[in-house]
Design a protein that fits this description.
With 266 residues, the chain is of the alpha/beta class. Helix content is 44%, strand content 18%. It has eleven helices and eight strands. An eight-stranded mixed sheet has the order 1-2-4-3-5-6-7-8, with helices on both faces. Strand 7, helix 9 and strand 8 form a beta-alpha-beta unit. Helix 1 crosses helix 11, helix 2 crosses helix 3 and helix 4 runs antiparallel to helix 8.
Amino acid sequence: MTDQYFDQPGLSTRFRVEGTGPTLALIHGVGSSLESWDDVVSSLGSGYRIVRHDLRGLGKSTKIKGRYELTEFVDDFIALLDHLEIDACHVVGHSLGGLVAQGIAIFHPQRVNKLVLSATVAGRNQEEKDRVMTRLRTVGNGIAGDHFRKSIDRWFTAEFQKKYPERIAALERQNLTNDPDCYAAAYRVLAQSDLVNELHRIQATTLITTGEFDIGSNPRMAALMHERIAGSRFVILPGLRHSLLVEAPEVVADLIRDFLTADKSQ
């Protein structure tokens, strides 16, 4: 695997392309990077041309200062597809990446074959809005690692934390590499963007999944997305919380593979 960079004015996007077959794009969450998909990619095995990139301000893409908008993340992805001469592909997004994936499917429907929305958000109620704004203030306080430490119990089950403390420690070290301003700018997009009233425009065959005990991207929101996206499929993963890519990569890979290979005539 070799990192490549796609340069545009003011933005250099790190990306990787690996494998052969139908193109499958994986979009990571806030405060993370393309490496967050490593275990899922390993579990998927061969059969796909997998494209991953670091969102602006995150990973090794340019640390652009200032306010970010959801449309910028969407436009960055479309520009990368154009650069790679990809007309359309399957799109999978996790958390913030799932919000970006919604935007791609809504505003660029011709670029999406099948769509997977993993542990993402739409239609927050007032209590959920208040909670995420509290988390946004934590991210914005500039205290390194504060948000990660306060989120561990939301993201990981107690069993995983007890069994894999070194994995939690490694993820915390990765989280500490984020630029605080860029992390906060990306988190604001997750906290304040909502495409619930546009979901009916999604034409792609869609799978929606989240953990049974995911508080921030909860089953109620997943069910609402399922209701709004015609013909979508809906899977709640029992016993899991938010960090599906870390705690259950084999389960996620199996879901993606089964979904993409079903109904090949569509």
